Amino acid sequence: MSDRYQSFTATPIGKLLVKNLGLPSPVRLDRWTEGAPLVDGTVLVGGDGRLAGLLPTLLKDLGVEVRTEADGDGRFKGLVLDATGITDSAGLVALTEFFTPVMRRLETCPRLVVVGTDPAHTSSAAERVAQRALEGFTRSLGKEVGRGGTSQLVYVAPGAEEAVASTLAFLLSPKSAYVSGQVIRIGAHGETAVAEEPAVAEKPLAGKVALVTGASRGIGEQIARVLHRDGATVVGVDVPQAASDLVALVRELGGDHLALDITAKDAPQRIAQHLSDKHGGVDVVVHNAGITRDKKLANMKADRWESVIAVNLTAPERITRELLDQGVINANGRVIGVASIAGIAGNVGQTNYAASKAGVIGLVDSLADEVTDGITVNAVAPGFIITKMTAAVPFATREVGQRLNAMAQGGLPVDVAETIAWYAHPGSTAVNGNVVRVCGQMMLGA
């Protein structure tokens, strides 16, 4: 679905109006296509912390062109600073010493990443203060880099240094086009399982089974397609009313399906049995199915409240618990919830929806320390994603939703799907307990 405003700003008169009136000027974002390099350009790496010696080698192993000096006139597609060596506030000057001289040498849609130490794992009060300061820096940097650029902070717990590859590959590539201003924690929950190395880098999920609820259309369909692209056998789940679309999709992807209402009393048991009997278990569980029944609380009928909570929150809780209790989720498995910006910042007329999506974040918090055998629990929180549903939103509301972020545009379903594929990657074992917003870094709200 095209962004007409973005197309208009690329015309001669559009460019003139943008310049003279100070209107938003959304850049056409780089998005990854099969066969393309992971990073189309050079990445500058700096810093002198725990990962200083590892990062250049790791990125070169991923096929990335790396430089460790900014000498010359070359331009950069990515900047990575190891800030784990900053142990007090005076040391924060390293941020401007690294970034400031090269900010005008960035390519379009650049990727900026700061690697730090989770404040909970620092060794002194001064270090904790300094490492927490990195969050304000990276979030502000994301709002000023412009030209489709992104900025992220990756907190790496001591001992988890070798587990950063899948995360850096995602954040430095076009796969993270609509993810910016995020704080990602690696090893925060004491994960000790060894990250798997995929046999084929281009198909990291080969031999894996992925369950996707609400798979027949919209974001769910795109999740299924991206996981299939990465090699997974997709088991799609949707309500019986969507069975024809669901069957058509899984036939195209060579997958499997279950047409059922996930709120049914026996749905968790039926899903668990199907996965066990037909696939010998499951490796990736994506709780994507969701509904809205919007009304202000003063006008909220009980059925509107109950149906949204049942589909968006209670069903994922029950299904996850059943799969864990029965041991259906394989070792190094993934449980991934789809939350929402509404669950973080709230929305008028969506008390039911916001409560359900905040509950999904609560599910991540409650399970992250419980799961074992390398299983992880994470969530994405989409912002304004352009779908058929959002196309029906009134024009003025839609424009505000699309423009009030650092990218000045809405995201696409593939942006959510790529973030989920990163979580699902076998190398993401130490990525646990995270909620990453896919929102282009909203300018207002949480």
Write a brief structural summary.
The chain is an alpha/beta fold and 446 residues long.
End-to-end Cα distance? 27 Å
CATH-wise, what's the superfamily of the largest domain? NAD(P)-binding Rossmann-like Domain
Helical content, roughly?
25-40%
What's the structural domain tally?
2
Query: What strand line-up does the widest sheet have?
Result: 9-8-7-10-11-12-13
Structural class: alpha/beta
User: What's the number of helices?
Assistant: 15
CATH architecture of the largest domain: 3-Layer(aba) Sandwich
Give the uncertain stretches in residue-range form: none
* Strand content range: 15-25%
Radius of gyration over all CA atoms, rounded: 22 Å
Number of strands: 13
Average of pLDDT = 93
Topology:
Blueprint: H1 4-9, H2 12-21, E1 42-47, H3 54-61, E2 65-67, E3 76-82, H4 93-99, E4 106-116, H5 125-144, E5 150-156, H6 165-172, E6 182-186, E7 209-213, H7 218-229, E8 233-238, H8 243-253, E9 256-259, H9 267-279, E10 282-287, H10 302-325, E11 329-338, H11 342-345, H12 351-367, E12 376-382, H13 388-391, H14 395-403, H15 413-424, E13 435-438
Helix pairs in contact: 7-15, 9-10, 10-12
Question: Would you mind describing this structure in some detail?
Answer:
With 446 residues, this protein is an alpha/beta fold. The protein folds into two domains: 22-186, NAD(P)-binding Rossmann-like Domain (Rossmann fold, 3-Layer(aba) Sandwich), CATH 3.40.50; 209-438, NAD(P)-binding Rossmann-like Domain (Rossmann fold). Helices cover 37% and strands 18% of the residues. The strands form two sheets. It has a seven-stranded parallel sheet, sandwiched between helices. It has a six-stranded parallel sheet with strand order 2-1-3-4-5-6, with helices on both faces.
